[in-house]
Input
Amino acid sequence: MRTKTLLLSGLMLAAVSLPAAAQTAGGGISKDMLAEIKNAQQRTPADRALLNALAANSIDAVAKNYANQGAVDTYFSVETPAQSITDQKQSGRCWMFSGFNVMRSAFAQRTDSLTVDLSHDYLFFYDQLEKANLFLQGVVDCADKPIDDERVRFFFKAPLNDGGTYCGVADLVSKYGLVPSEVMPETFSAENTSKVAQLMKPKLREQGLKLRSMVAEGKSRADINKEKTKMLAVIYRMLALTMGEPPTEFTYAFKNKDGRTVTGAKTYNPVTFAAEILGGKPLMGSFIMVMNDPRREYYKTYEVEYDRHTYDGTNWKYLNLPMEDIARLAIASLKDGRKMYSSYDVGKFLDGKRGYLDVRNFDYGSLFGTEFGMDKAQRIMTYDSGSTHAMTLTAVDLDADGKPVMWKVENSWGPSYGQKGCLIMTNEWFNEYMFRLVVDKKYVPAKMLKQYEQEPVMVMPEDPLFLPDE
Output
């Protein structure tokens, strides 16, 4: 028995060492190594059947776990009132749509009967103008660094984007206010952001190079600021021609949920209208952002450098928490009827037809005869997973012990997608692919509020987890 064990061990060691011996000296694939790779293939009738199936169908169609294809349970023990579903169309503005959903819901809850649709086009106009300034001023700030410096590359690689976070909503609303959608409705370019971005990005890069040259030539700060203002006037014109020029004053009367006008018409400017929607309380300072990042120490506060929408605005700051704590915060808010901004890696295990997110939706491992074994931390650190899409957390189903079983979010892909515009997710999926949550401070324990006020650890924006929600 001992001789047999030694023999098997030797054979296994030889098998492990063969690929290394067969590869080229520099680590490339040699002919011998390629032959060994090919010989490792099973080439069974089952493999031929899989090839035929995959040649004619999508991977998801073949990997779909039919044992998990029953009707989706749509009952939730804790659910906030439903509201109209929005559609971000071909844009990355999910962060704004989710932020507006939270504001609309809070407004309806506070007024008990009034509803409002807010103009995404209006705030997006200023979002793009502010991001253009953030880029240009960032280039000036880093003008003493070489063009291949990491921070300079960061700016020039992405001078503009249409993604963001809830902190951006708060900064922009604080500075520019809000307007109703009928005052500044969506335009084609607001709903389809790629083309105007393709034109503004090279223009901004060209402008950035000119500003770097001005700094190198020793031009005064006043001259540089004057030139930057001219540059932003060009960007403003491009935005105005594609999205319309933002209003400075308008008349508006509120409607109820049946669409009937129930208040007298009143004259507003965007700032006074925002105050009406928010009940006179500013967004900034009313919430904390929490995140689940298992790579880093929990109960510590982190801040992401340059992760903001306005140059003079607020960097995204978050308290890192275990998922159990995040769930408790979410449940407390939902029980009080308050929806929340939240974000996810929504593309993972998504059954779009059913609007259902479950790690058992697709069996990719069995299909390819392997395992996909990385945990959440490993997926983040290798750029395999991260926050990609913001949605509005609206419901939770709790078991007899008060533990979450399922969650529900309002999405911004239109009312015909998924569950009448919503997505339902199992708690297991929620734990694996949920990343950010914005919670009103009234639902946060005092100890966590104190932790949130710690001196933050600065994190670079290149970190795989800190890409904007789109």
Notes: The longest strand covers residues 389-398. The radius of gyration is 26 Å. DSSP finds 17 helices and 16 strands in the chain. The first helix runs from residue 2 to 22.
